[in-house]
Amino acid sequence: MIELALHILDIAENSSRADATLIEITLVEDMVNDILSLEIKDNGKGMDEDTIEKAMDPFYTTKKVRRVGLGLPMLKQAAITAGGRFSIESHVGKGTRVFAQFQHSHIDRQPIGDIPGCLVALIIGNPDIDILYTHTKNDRAYTLDTSEIRSALDGVPLNHREVLNVIKDNIIEGIAELNA
To answer: Could you tell me the CA-to-CA distances from 94 to 30, 42, 72, 157 in Å, in that order?
Structure first.
């Protein structure tokens, strides 16, 4: 994967397959301390210690289509290559937390990528899962909470084309304000 948004999409899709009803994605750009951190938490099935260890093996997967599971090992390698660190915590029946930290200015740090496209793709494929996305850059923050949007829609599905267009525009504007 060549950008962090693709890692987010891959891991969040794992969360949906683990029957999560809530996926929390937190991206923090701390320019003062030169740190970029990414955290993805879910309330899915979780994994035991043996499964966590297997999940870090690129030749292990629970997917039926693809016979390799490169997502977590590739994110770990991306973090370490960019002067950072990686961790995964999971508890059966409670969910999973994936954390990656990068040196923000590191020449080998992958770009953040297409966050609006990533989040819209998650919503299209998982309209019944609540997604809480928080992106912080220094003293500014942007939050997308699909549970709030869903309650305001009064029965209109999140993956309706017009709703998705509004959501995507909102994400683009919110991220642009972080960089202003």
So the answer is: 29, 8, 19, 27
What Cα–Cα distance (Å) separates residue 127 from each residue in 34, 112, 121? 35, 24, 10
Would residue 119 be called left, alpha or beta, if left means φ above 0 and alpha means ψ between -120 and 50 degrees? Answer: alpha
Task: List helix spans (H) across 24-88.
Answer: 49-55, 71-81
Distance (Å, whole) CA 39 – CA 98? 6
Query: Residues 16-52: pLDDT tens digits?
Result: 999 999 999 999 999 999 999 999 999 999 999 998 8
Interval 134-150: pLDDT, tens: 999 999 999 999 999 99
Q: Which amino acid is at 91?
A: H
pTM for this entry = 0.92
C-alpha–C-alpha distance, residues 123 and 158, integer Å = 7
